[in-house]
Amino acid sequence: MTKKLAFLFLCIASIGFSQTTLPLIPQPQSLERHEGIFTLTKETVIEADPNQFEAKFLQQEIKKLTGLELKIVSGANAPSKIGLYELLSGGFHNDDEAAAKFYSNRNQGKYFLNIHPNSVSILQSDPLGTFYGIQTFLQLITPGQKTAIEIPCLDIKDAPKYAWRGMHLDCARHFFSISFVKKYIDYLAMYKFNTFHWHLTDDQGWRIEIKKYPKLTQVGAYRNGSMVGHYNDQKYDSLKYGGFYTQQEIKDVVAYAAQRHITVVPEIEMPGHAVAALAAYPQYSCTGGPFEVGKQWGVLDDVFCPKEETFTFLQNILAEVIALFPSNYIHIGGDECPKTRWKSCPNCQKLIKDKGLKDEHELQSYFVQRIEKFVNSKGRKIIGWDEILEGGLAPNAAVMSWRGTEGGIAAAKQKHYVVMTPVSHCYFDYYQGDSKTEPLSIGGFLPIEKVYALEPTPNELSEEEAKYILGAQANLWTEYIATPEHVEYMIFPRMIALSEVVWGTSKPDNFGDFKERLIEQFKALDVRKINYSKVILKN
User: Fold this and answer.
1) Which of 107, 450, 523, 539 shows the smallest number of beta carbons within 10 Å?
2) pLDDT (tens digit, 9 = 90+) per residue, 126-160?
3) Do 469 and 420 touch, CB atoms closer than 8 A?
4) Are strands 111-116 and 149-158 parallel, antiparallel or unpaired?
5) Can 516 be counted among the known catalytic residues?
6) Is 416 a catalytic residue?
């Protein structure tokens, strides 16, 4: 191991970058090409613990891409091998100060990938680094080749810049099977995303089993019709639509994601976007109902009423949610909460007066802070859309800035953590091409060039304030997206552009280089039978 490390650090002593013909996305932090070729054949072996998930994953993915079935062996002395190695304690020799500084200043997931004529080495200090090194190596395999696969010799030193590299999927407006949710997670893993934001409840459907409140799924998971065509057409069908995930299915998804080093962050909407829950339990509204699960897209007036029994209801729900999801953050929504019912509700107006609140915005802040206190008591933190800033931010809350970057800037200046997801750059339900030829969408226009131009850390922040920017994510709202194929079309290839942004190596001024690498990526998407937009090929 010591000789391997010494050789490694000689190879990476000079930091350069040259990859005009290598289709690597996200682009590594440092890449140096060398003369020579490593040839992947059926005789190549994987040197690793045969029980290691990452080794099995590499074996399976190579088979998918090439048809080759490689053996996993420990302590191999083979003429051609791919080795998964752990760095020595500390990872660096004392005289390697530059490498040590690089390593210590980066987030988790650091790795070294060294390709020589007879061997490939992936070195890291944690399984996450192994996994990211594997994903980079897989991108160097030309998809579809079935015999001897030639891979250029090189040295890569790499690590992500941002700690939150996320993708969101709305399963409330349209429901997607567990098998597709897992496939979605696979897509995230391919491009080194580490956070899956799972939108599970909304006006139009409640998708998570809560054992204490069975009517949430018996009633709230199904609507008696949906909008047809665009919202502006105001047309509906009368077809019963819905579905939900059992707690066992959710545990299965969480475990599946964890193996691929992805954290699943659940979103349980409150105080607004709650009609599906209120259809099942109308007593937690201001009016008492009755309600039906929302057929109409958009924002509906009926919301949770901030009375004690409502807080008990929501805390019981969150207790079950927290038990299912080990994520540090629990997303509580907080967006688009109309104050119409609160303004005419005697309970709400009395609460405003009793608590000395200024208005309904401060009532929402009171609501969020009550929920935060409970979530904190369970050892977790809340994150919410940037409306939770209104009326005063809960003490430990993180903010997801969607209406622009202003909310995120304000939160970071108050020393709250922020995930940037501005609608201008990160709403993948927007059109990516000419609306006359693209599938029906909510509207808007978000070409891939604009996604690639996102800067998660605004210039308005000082160096100290910038530390509160966790990263960024894109959101896929599914009012107009009903099938897995359509989901794929809307996220690919824009998700690939975002992956390089959140990895920290995007260069918006050189979009041409990214485009060249992206088009090479399409070969892998074709082999995996992923549906993707080809709009960029027309430009």
Assistant:
1) 539
2) 899 999 999 999 999 988 777 779 999 999 999 99
3) yes
4) antiparallel
5) no
6) no
